[in-house]
Amino acid sequence: MALRGNLLSVLLLHAVAAMASGESARLELVPAAPGVSVAERARDDRHRQAYISTRLASRPGGSRRVAAEAPASAVSLPMSSGAYTGTGQYFVNLLVGTPAQEFTLVADTGSDLTWVKCQGAGGASSPGRVFRPANSKSWAPVPCSSDTCKLDVPFSLANCSSSASPCSYDYRYKEGATGARGVVGTDSATIALPGGKVSKLQDVVLGCSSTHDGQSFRSADGVLSLGNSKISFAASGARRFGGSFSYCLVDHLARRDAAGYLHFGPLPVSQRPTAQTPMLLSAQMPFYGVKVDAIHVAGKALDIPAEVWDATKNGGAILDSGTTLTVLATPAYKAVVAALSTHLAGVPTVDFPPFEHCYNWTARGPGAPDIPKLVVQFAGSARLEPPAKSYVIDVKPGVKCIGVQEGEWPGVSVIGNILQQEHLWEFDLKNMLVRFKESICTR
Ligand SMILES: *[C@@H]1O[C@H](CO)[C@@H](O)[C@H](O)[C@H]1NC(C)=O
Ligand SMILES: *[C@@H]1O[C@H](CO)[C@@H](O)[C@H](O)[C@H]1NC(C)=O
């Protein structure tokens, strides 16, 4: 396989190394062709930050039981890094419909609509599975005249020729060409429990996308919405299981079979994170805002204007599982990059666009500086201390880059999934708190 100068080649090498050491017989590599270069992902992340900022700036002030179903107070799904496919997202497998069909979905806290590729979607370019609503006994279309369609479905189309017509959407993920179009219905989702039983969530709002575009959907069958919204999967899960959900992200370069988890319901006391910060929600927006108080590099608080972290001044920060690289608004970006690069000044540099600061780590002599510690301090004294590999990232063998990007200012800063990796994040929707702690995420 041809190695290219992008993240995919790192992933392939990691995979090859893992196979050579015999630790990963189950590892499967997908063809290199659908790989997305780190430059494309970096551009996607910047577009997404611009889109999220635009969306935020426009903000306005009965069920059937199934035999095998078991009452459960909490459920968990494996959640794995999609890096083996060359994408920067985390995937969850979900069973949808009756009889249940399995789909691989991007777990996205920036989404309010869960959708799957439907019959007719994508054609030959869509090798994955497709959902056939007509074959699901539990599928019910949502009419375009319903309040759910008119008030809750984001990007629903205004056309509603007859009141029984299906609710259509044209969902946009970022500025540019990433989105999905289709019709909305409800169906059940099935989650396997230990011991062979299952738990069912009824009446989950589900989009059936007949067309879609964007890199992220090449290797996934759709999106699992973990955003804050009446119709999101996170909300359905949290309503049913104790008002909260959590996820634990394994290292994004971990082997394909090294899964973290997505959990609904209270965490066992021994696992519950203690660091907590208020969850800042905005009306009709799926995003989980958090208040950053400061960023420290090597123990020193950086000089970043307070407006950058102030959501009322078009700044602020969100946690986003659907963004790969952290995007910081210009003043924060400049301060972080200046501090990190000053500390790394002794290491030979290499060019690796779009990153501004990349280092030849193999040529790093003895006595060369280490990666300084970066700490994100949130309101409520919660400190995120990511491992060095989460902000000075491996982009190809022997090459590391400062892995944050510059985002629009004014604009929101987006804490991406690489910065969140190897941590357990709990979104307590009932008490409006985000909790987190370091974890290797395997159970
Ligand atoms: C609404 O318009 C879209 C796009 O023009 C179309 O795909 C969809 O079928 C229409 N929906 C209804 C209910 O007429
Ligand atoms: C890094 O430095 C080593 C040793 O000087 C050299 O062989 C290698 O080609 C360099 N790598 C890159 C990507 O420049």
From TrEMBL:
Presence of the UniProt keyword Hydrolase in the record: yes
CDD domains for the chain: pepsin_A_like_plant
Transmembrane segments: none
Protein keywords: Aspartyl protease, Glycoprotein, Hydrolase, Protease, Signal
Domain named Peptidase A1: residues: 90-437
Signal peptide as annotated in the record: 1-22
Active-site residues (renumbered): D108, D320
InterPro entries, per the entry: Aspartic_peptidase_A1 (IPR001461), Aspartic_peptidase_AS (IPR001969), Pepsin-like_plant (IPR034161), PEPTIDASE_A1 (IPR033121), Peptidase_aspartic_dom_sf (IPR021109), Plant_Aspart_Prot_A1 (IPR051708), TAXi_C (IPR032799), TAXi_N (IPR032861)
An annotated Gene Ontology molecular function: aspartic-type endopeptidase activity
One Pfam family this sequence matches: TAXi_C
GO biological process: proteolysis
Secreted in keyword set: no
Stated family: Belongs to the peptidase A1 family.
PANTHER family attached to this UniProt entry: EUKARYOTIC ASPARTYL PROTEASE FAMILY PROTEIN, OS07G0603500 PROTEIN-RELATED
Protein's recorded name: Peptidase A1 domain-containing protein
